[in-house]
Fold this protein.
Amino acid sequence: MERTFTFIKPDVVSRNLVGAVIARYEAEGLRVAALKRLHLSKVKAQGFYAVHRSRPFFDSLTAFMTEGPVVAMVLEGDSAMDKVRRINGATNPSEAAPGTIRKDFGTNIERNAVHGSDSLENAAKEIAHVFSELEIF
Ligand code: IDP
Ligand code: MG
């Protein structure tokens, strides 16, 4: 069993589509092992996306991620990390495959509905960024 980290981004939360997104993961056999709704501070968002600090979209991305609440989850299952990224779809919703979350719920390359960890190492870091061990079952 693998664990990965997911954010449901503020664009989805503000449109009342949290349940619709979680249903996509559950339908693919992933289990919600931890879940929290929170409003990121700018500093926390900058820390989470630190790897993108020098990219031109860094300021805009961290502003977006702090404009309203997000829902953070630990999802668990076989090949959870790759599975979540497949269910999420390509970074740019206009290039995402039909039936993916980003294709169906994303607005543009920045406001793309969801985040999924891109490696098991990053998944562990991202989980620890938001959840304590006592919150994951
Ligand atoms: P990923 O979320 O598919 O792994 P990354 O390249 O890691 O994509 O980028 C992290 C996030 O930064 C994306 O999900 C998206 O919200 C935002 N982003 C990526 N590329 C761009 C861009 O070219 N313009 C604006 N925002 C971007
Ligand atoms: Mg990434």
